[in-house]
Structure formats: C-alpha cells, structure tokens
C-alpha cells in the first residue's frame, strides 16, 4: 500500500527482532578519541536530520541521570493533515543509548496492514556514544537511509522532554471466603479448574499474571495536556511510525485533544443525526466512505440504551433549557410507549422498533406493526434487561411532561396500567414492583403504591441487603460485567420512581425509605466494584447520593473517575482496525473464566463441552481509546478484559454511554461547560 510505504519512520522491524546501530562517519576522529570525548554524555542537544523517504526533521535530545530522550518532528511529512512527532525514551548504557520500540500498544491490524506475531516483538535500537561527536547515519528496514547530527547546547535541566504516564495496577476483586466456599459447593471451581487445563488456556500457565491470577488495569494519561494544547500534532511514543501506531495516536488525540464539552457536542450531534430513528429508538447507522449515512442497522438492545439516552437528555434540559434536549426526550418517550403498544398484547413488549415497510422481509424475530404502526417492525422478546430502559423513561417522563399535555398523559396512564401484566415483568418481583410504582405515580393508584412498597421492602430485599448480593459480586477476576450496568439501571429506576412518588404522596414514609435504600445501594455498588474500574458507578453514586457528596474521599475518587470521560474519543474510532491480542508477546489470557456458572448445567453438574469462547477473558484492561471504543455500542456494559477487538468503519454507533455520564457529571458539579 503506497501510503503505508510512505508513512514509516524508523520502522526497525518487519519480520524478526533486530539491533540497529547508528554508524559514526569518521571525520579525522579515531573511535577511541570519540569515545573519550563523550564519556559524560549528559546534556541537552539539538537534533537535525533527514530521511530519504520523509525528508527533513529536527528536534531535541535530553540526557540526564542514565535516561535519554529524543523528540523530533518532520518538516513536511504529515498524517491526515497533522504533523508527526517521534518520541524515543531509553537508557544510557556503556555501549550507547538503548531504546525499545514497538509497533503498537494494543492494535495488531489497521486497514489492510496486519502485523505478524514476530513483528509485534519490540525491537532494540542502540545509538553508539561516539555518534554524538559527528554526523551518524543508519539504514532502517522499510525507511531507507537517515542522517542525523546531535549538537550539544547546554547542561541538562532537571525536567525531561517527555513524561511517560502509562501505568498499570492489579485490580482483582475480593476473595470473599464465604462466597468462595459456596461457589466450590455449587461446582463453579470445578469449571475454573477444568478451564485452566484446556490446551488453549494452559499455554499461558507460565505467564506471571496467569500464575498469580492477576487482573491488570492499564491507565495512560500520557500526553493528555499536550494534545489539548496541540490538537493538530500526533506523537508516536516509543514506537516505529507505522499504520498501527498512527491509528492509536489519532485515537489518543481524539480523546485528549478535545474538551469534555466539545466531545459532548460532537457525539450529541452525531447521535441525533445518524442514530435516533423516527420511531424514537437508537440504531446503528451504516455509512459510506465519506461518513454519510446510507442506512440503519437495528440494535436489539435498544430499549435499554435509548432509555439511558433519554436520561441524558432530561439532565441536559434541566441544566440548559435547550428545546432540542426536550424534543429528543419526547421522541424517546414516544418510542418507549410504542414498545408497549405495538404488540397489541399486554403479555409482551418490544425490544426495539425499525422503520420498515411490510414488503421488506426480515427474520422471524421481527413482526410488522398494524394500524397506525403499519410502517414499523418490532422485535420480539422484550425482557428483564429491556424493562430497565422503559422504567427509566417512564419515571423521568414525570419530570418532563407538562400537565397541559393531556393526550400524552392519558397515553402514559394507559401504558403503565397494563405494563405489570407483561410476562417479563410478572416473573420478577423487582420488575413487578417498579411497574406497579409507575402505575401509582401516573394513575395515583394507592393499591399499586402498596404493592410497590411491599416489593421494594420485602423479605427478599432484606436478605439481599443483608448479604449484599443485590449489588452482585467481584471475586478475584470474576464478575458479571454487563450485569453491573444493569444493576445500576435497576437502582436508578427505583431511585427515580420513589423520588417522584414522594412528590405525589408526600406523607408516605415508605416512599422516602425506598428512596434512601436506592441511594445506599449506589454506594454499595461502588464499594463492591471499586477495584473493578467501574468508574461510571462512582460518578453516578456521587451524583445521586448526598452521603457520597459529603465525603471528601469519595469526592476525590469521583474526580479521578472523570478520566473515564477523558479517555473516550470523538469520533469513536478511525477505521477498520483489530487487536488479535493472543498475538502480542506482552499479553495473557486470564486465569479466571469470566462467567464460570455458564459451564454448569445445574448444581455441581458441569457441561461436558462448555463454550470456551464464552468463558474467555484477557488479563488486561486497556484505556477506552485503545480498547472498547473501537467495537462497542455501549462502553459501560462491556467486558473490560478483551481477547479480540474489531471495528468496522462502515457502521457508526450511538453515544448514549458518554452522553449519560457527561450530563450526570455536569449535574453534580464535578465538571462545567468549560471542561
């Protein structure tokens, strides 16, 4: 590929690791004399050079205390209209300056470049000390000849040219001996042991993180300030300049090179323009090479994600009075009511809606609407998860619908009256209670109010509170990752319904007790997953719990949690990319299957042939701009430890994830419109 050939700088590895030395040009100096002159190389240097492929470049070098750094920028070479800098940071050794350069941090594929396992092994580059006294040159594979001169300017200052802020820490869940004992009794540890003995898992048993059963959380704040001040410059740090490192640099720039509010505006406009269909449901957009929308791809979990999006628009309207936010919420409300109405069966509700004529033949999952909905198709199997999005929308509607909107209110009243009859609602005590609470809220039905109170404060809820099982579990490296977000959504449904019921029935003590219970559940949820990097929980808990906002330590944690928003890029990804992580030498599978209960068929009964792919997770979490932003519809429900990452530039997802958390954080005062 022509652009690939012309984008490589110092690309020192194409097939196997190599040691590249810069060769000193003899201009009357003997090697021994040159070495004597540079026996103490500390200092700051001007660097000037030329590449026979990318042309002239210049920059600085800094050598101090055994550390060497070199930053150069090309005069004319650019990538996607942005200038490119190369940063090398290494150490001083008796033989010279040693650097280790990689292809990428995470990606193994971008567009039509797919790296081999051998290419992903970092390459060692050594600059001999004698090269500091004259011009030196090197011929680098894939990059041709470079010639470079270092000129000493002054003594080295204490401040380096660049700071590497990529850090990692072990973030396993609790050992929780009681639950561990129950898990062993139930047979889950048999699944774990069998999983570790599988040939495709056992090959990792010598990896340190596997042996220790560690889950590693990687955080990278490197160049965050730089990109905010220099949004049109890409920095390639300790890597060769290649398609993978360039793509990762663009994603980092898209995350750190914009303010939080800029990203909110960008993602709001994109979601409204590309993803919110006329039926009031979020979909995945199909786009052409120029980024123009050419079609829609229905999202099967849209009832939940659309409810989250509606939540963001409620806060946006409350804070800004922007009529666009109100219009967006009303569209979502209309879509949510249609989910309940279109099946024409009180036992069912839809998962999502799509604009589609009856002449279009879709799968059996889709049913054509009738009457006023004959232009729509609806997806079957409305379930527990989708109910949470509906709960949120119908509770928040009580804040947003004006009493003068009589027809809309009557429509809501009718919908919430029948909602408790749906099978997915009846079969779960919590869901039935919330649905009855909505009926009490909108229809002022005191019998439904009593049912709501009983279901929220019954013996089952008491046991859940006492054992803390209602918050879920994070044990060692095992959690129901998507379930964490679903639990948060359930708590917020309870929170908003009880909050509005307090207004309608101000003298009802139990409504206040339920509201306090929801607040306490948010704190508990955060406590359970504090080692699990579920920072969206921290920000939601801080916003909606007065107790959390009074706690200075919790506030500090919430402010640190804002890095979750800073890591989100806009745009969300930049092309067809992938990470086949088992190719990477620095990666390992996790010693912990992510959901070992899926390897059981019943109490203590293991499946004979369980789905390995369903249980696999990696041992590493990566920053959002390096990981899940490439291929997700919703960040906060994703498994944080990927094995494979893939993106498709012909699709564009919505951003209810970022928008919800941005506006939640705005409403708490953690951020402002200036951030």
Structure in words:
This protein has about 675 residues and is α+β, with helices and mostly antiparallel strands. About 40% of the residues lie in helices and about 20% in strands. β11 (about 135-140) and β12 form a beta hairpin. α10 packs antiparallel against α11 (about 325-340). The model is unreliable at about 1-40 (pLDDT under 50).
Outline the secondary-structure elements:
Blueprint: H1 2-5, E1 19-21, E2 23-24, H2 31-37, E3 43-51, E4 55-64, E5 67-79, E6 82-93, E7 96-101, E8 109-110, E9 113-114, E10 123-128, E11 136-140, E12 144-154, E13 166-170, H3 177-186, H4 188-196, H5 199-202, H6 208-211, E14 216-220, H7 224-229, E15 233-237, H8 243-256, H9 260-275, E16 283-287, E17 293-298, H10 302-320, H11 323-341, E18 353-355, E19 366-368, E20 376-379, H12 384-400, H13 406-418, H14 423-426, H15 429-443, H16 446-456, H17 459-467, H18 481-504, H19 509-528, H20 535-544, H21 546-550, H22 552-561, H23 563-566, E21 577-580, E22 600-602, E23 605-606, H24 612-615, E24 620-621, E25 644-646, E26 651-652, H25 656-668
Parallel strand pairs: 1-10, 6-15, 14-24
Antiparallel strand pairs: 2-11, 3-4, 3-12, 4-5, 5-6, 6-7, 7-10, 8-9, 8-21, 11-12, 13-14, 16-17, 16-26, 18-20, 19-20, 21-25, 22-23
Helix pairs in contact: 9-25, 10-11, 10-12, 10-25, 11-12, 12-15, 12-18, 13-15, 15-16, 15-18, 18-19, 19-20, 20-22, 20-25
Q: What is the terminal-to-terminal distance? A: 40 Å
Low-confidence stretches: 1-38
Apparent shape: globular
Strand content: 15-25%
DSSP E strands, number: 26
Helical segment count = 25
| Rg calculated over all Cα atoms | 29 Å
Question: How is the main sheet built?
Answer: 11 strands, mixed
What's the helical proportion of residues?
Answer: 40-55%
By secondary-structure content and strand pairing, the structural class works out as alpha+beta
The mean pLDDT is 89
């Amino acid at each position: 590929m022509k652009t690939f050939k012309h984008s490589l700088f110092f690309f020192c590895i194409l097939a196997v690791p190599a040691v590249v030395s810069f060769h000193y040009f003899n201009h009357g100096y003997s090697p021994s004399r040159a070495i004597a002159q540079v026996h103490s190389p500390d200092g700051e240097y001007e660097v000037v050079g030329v590449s026979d492929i990318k042309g002239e470049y210049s920059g600085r070098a800094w050598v101090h205390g055994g550390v060497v750094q070199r930053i150069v920028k090309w005069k004319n070479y650019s990538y996607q209209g942005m200038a490119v800098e190369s940063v090398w940071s290494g150490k001083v050794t008796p033989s010279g300056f040693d650097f280790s350069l990689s292809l990428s941090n995470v990606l193994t594929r971008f567009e039509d470049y797919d790296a081999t396992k051998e290419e992903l092994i970092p390459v060692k580059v050594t600059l001999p000390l004698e090269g500091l006294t004259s011009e030196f040159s090197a011929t680098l594979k894939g990059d041709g000849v470079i010639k470079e001169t270092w000129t000493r300017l002054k003594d080295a200052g204490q401040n380096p040219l660049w700071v590497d802020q990529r850090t990692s820490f072990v973030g396993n869940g609790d050992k929780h001996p009681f639950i561990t004992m129950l898990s062993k009794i139930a047979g889950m540890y048999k699944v774990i042991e069998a999983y570790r003995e599988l040939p495709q898992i056992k090959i990792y048993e010598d990896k340190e993180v596997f042996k220790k059963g560690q889950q590693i959380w990687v955080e990278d704040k490197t160049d965050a300030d730089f990109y905010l001040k220099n949004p049109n410059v890409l920095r390639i740090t300790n890597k060769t300049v290649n398609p993978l490192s360039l793509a990762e640099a663009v994603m980092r720039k898209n995350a750190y090179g914009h303010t939080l509010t800029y990203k909110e505006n960008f993602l709001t406009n994109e979601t409204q323009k590309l993803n919110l269909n006329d039926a009031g449901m979020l979909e995945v957009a199909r786009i052409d090479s120029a980024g123009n929308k050419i079609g829609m791809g229905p999202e099967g979990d849209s009832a939940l994600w659309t409810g989250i999006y509606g939540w963001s628009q409620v806060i946006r309207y409350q804070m800004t009075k922007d009529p666009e936010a109100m219009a967006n919420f009303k569209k979502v409300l209309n879509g949510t009511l249609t989910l309940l109405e279109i099946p024409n069966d009180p036992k069912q509700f839809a998962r999502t809606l799509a604009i589609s004529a009856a002449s279009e033949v879709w799968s059996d999952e889709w049913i054509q609407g009738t009457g006023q909905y004959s232009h729509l198709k609806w997806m079957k199997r409305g379930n527990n998860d989708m109910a949470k999005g509906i709960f949120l929308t119908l509770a928040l509607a009580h804040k947003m619908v004006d009493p003068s909107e009589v027809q809309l209110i009557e429509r809501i009243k009718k919908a919430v009256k029948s909602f408790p009859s749906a099978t997915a609602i009846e079969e779960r005590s919590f869901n039935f209670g919330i649905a009855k609470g909505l009926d009490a809220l909108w229809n002022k039905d005191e019998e439904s109010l009593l049912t709501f109170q009983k279901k929220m404060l019954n013996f089952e809820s008491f046991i859940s509170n006492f054992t803390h099982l209602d918050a879920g579990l994070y044990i060692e490296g095992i959690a129901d990752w998507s379930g964490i977000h679903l639990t948060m959504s359930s708590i917020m449904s309870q929170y908003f319904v009880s909050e509005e019921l307090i207004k309608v029935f101000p003298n009802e003590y139990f409504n206040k007790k339920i509201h306090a219970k929801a607040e306490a559940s948010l704190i508990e949820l955060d406590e359970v997953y504090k080692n699990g990097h579920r920072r969206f929980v921290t920000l939601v808990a801080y916003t909606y719990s007065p107790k959390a906002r009074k706690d200075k330590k919790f506030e500090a944690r919430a402010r640190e949690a804002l890095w979750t928003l800073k890591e989100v890029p806009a745009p969300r990804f930049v092309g067809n990319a992938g990470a086949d992580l088992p190719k990477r030498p620095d990666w390992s599978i996790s010693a912990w299957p992510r959901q070992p209960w899926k390897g059981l068929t019943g109490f203590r009964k293991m499946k004979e042939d369980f789905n390995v792919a369903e249980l696999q997770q990696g041992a590493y979490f990566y920053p959002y701009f390096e990981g899940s932003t490439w291929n997700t519809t919703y960040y906060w429900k994703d498994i944080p430890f990927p094995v494979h990452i893939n993106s498709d530039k012909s699709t564009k997802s919505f951003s209810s994830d970022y928008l919800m958390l941005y506006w939640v954080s705005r409403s708490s005062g953690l951020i402002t419109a200036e951030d």
